[in-house]
Design goal:
Blueprint (H helix, E strand, L loop, with lengths): L4 H6 L10 H31 L4 E4 L3 H9 L4 E3 L7 E2 L2 E4 L9 E4 L6 H10 L3 E3 L1 H7 L12 H10 L1 H10 L3 H16 L29 E5 L5 H9 L5 E5 L3 H10 L6 E4 L2 E2 L4 E6 L6 E2 L5 E6 L1 H4 L6 E4 L5 H6 L2 H7 L2 E5 L6 H12 L3 E7 L7 E7 L2
Parallel strand pairs: 1-2, 1-5, 2-4, 5-6, 7-8, 7-14, 8-9, 10-13, 14-15
Antiparallel strand pairs: 3-4, 11-12, 11-13, 15-17, 16-17
Helix pairs in contact: 6-8, 7-14
Length: 388
């Protein structure tokens, strides 16, 4: 029998379902006591970092470290992987140079926050992860991309039945474990559930359960960025039929064409994939490039249905929150071709239910999987594999 999402969340200390008055009161009392003790110790360490006399350090040369430096001057920034002597005016030291009485705030957030805190813990260093520090710091700090605990919590409680429904239809236990842990992390910004994951972006999009056809595959890469996923696909399916890639940014498209120039049957669509033809403003910032009303560039947009004129076998999307619009513009291909899909689902607070709900409204005959490829907020993917 399938476990309810509520019960899986309970094992991480979040109680969403009341089975009986007595058990609920007992569990809530225990959870409240544990949470209070934990919160107090974190708050005390945060206060000591900001107001005490202990040496204070920041772990990692990241944008989050730069933001902390603006608010409170640390003794040093810790980074074992650089020869730079300073970061934003602060001396850079190695891990083994930290004062034994010091406190470290880890500013490693996006990819390997669990590895970072585990490293500090194994060294016997007093530390705070960024999410805990942000919660109790006496000043506002930079929010990690794509996740706001308050916004996600509001969406979760409004649409809880939708979250439960998506959890129930997931195709395997790994997907359910992934879903429940990510929900817990987004609700609480507690890194504990993320200890389940490892940093493995090299594995993204091409999971074995997708059952790729060796011959005759048509791959559509929506949000191509540097073309590396196209190369990964060609290695996996060397006898492919064709590739269609979408990338609206002109300079990025030039680089893609150089990278993929030796490969056959590639169609380059310099458009943003959307649910209509027209134009949108676009902010160009490397992997964070996205559609933006205040963007510095205007780019053309169009639908996948209008631009791809052959049957699609496999489609991948990573377009910084524009996925649902692009899926709407691929509706006829999804209905008629029944392609496998790999759709990123971490940019918007409602992606966890809205993306699968949308795809399954086109065709319900998909197995739905979820995988996550970092220890932080980035790289969550829904896979839709045709039921045959």
């Amino acid at each position: 029998m399938l476990m309810q999402l509520n019960f899986i969340l309970n094992k991480f200390g979040v109680s969403m379902t009341i089975n009986s008055a007595n058990s609920a009161n007992s569990a809530n009392s225990a959870n409240s006591a544990n949470s209070a003790n934990s919160a107090n110790s974190v708050r005390d360490l945060c206060d000591e970092f900001n107001f005490g006399s202990s040496p204070r350090y920041i772990f990692g040369r990241t944008p989050y470290a730069a933001d902390i430096i603006k608010k409170c001057k640390p003794h040093a920034v810790v980074d074992d992987f650089t020869n730079e002597s300073h970061f934003n005016g602060i001396p850079v030291i190695k891990l083994n140079e930290i004062d034994v009485n010091g406190i470290v705030v880890s500013a490693i957030v996006d990819g390997r926050p669990v590895t970072a805190t585990r490293t500090l813990k194994n060294k016997g260093i007093r530390y705070l992860d960024y999410f805990s520090f942000k919660k109790y710091a006496p000043y506002k700090l930079k929010e990690p991309p794509h996740v706001s605990s308050s916004a996600f919590s509001a969406d979760y409680y409004i649409n809880k039945k939708k979250y439960d429904a998506i959890y129930q239809l997931l195709a395997d236990e790994t997907s359910k474990e992934t879903f429940s842990r990510l929900v817990k992390f987004r609700l609480t910004e507690d890194l504990t559930p993320m200890e389940y994951f490892t940093f493995r972006p090299a594995d993204i999009y091409f999971e074995s359960f997708v059952n790729f056809r060796v011959e005759g595959t048509v791959f559509v890469d929506v949000g191509c960025f540097d073309g590396s996923n196209v190369i990964d696909f060609i290695r996996l399916c060397p006898d492919y039929r064709s590739v269609h890639l979408f990338e609206p940014e002109p300079k990025q498209m030039e680089q893609i064409k150089k990278s993929l120039g030796d490969f056959r049957n590639i169609t380059y669509h310099q458009y943003g994939a959307s649910n209509r033809a027209g134009a949108l403003r676009f902010t160009s910032s490397g992997i964070w490039s996205h559609m933006d009303d205040a963007g510095e560039t205007e780019v053309k947009i169009n639908t996948i249905d209008a631009l791809v004129n052959e049957k699609i076998t496999f489609m991948k999307m990573d377009i910084e929150g524009h996925e649902c619009s692009a899926l709407e513009g691929a509706r006829q291909h999804i209905i008629n071709d029944h392609p496998s899909l790999a759709i990123c689902a971490y940019h918007l607070v409602d992606d966890f239910w809205k993306i699968p709900e949308l795809v399954l409204s086109f065709r319900p005959d998909y197995h739905v999987y979820m995988r996550h490829y970092t220890e932080g907020v980035l790289e969550t993917v829904f896979y839709f594999v045709p039921v045959h």
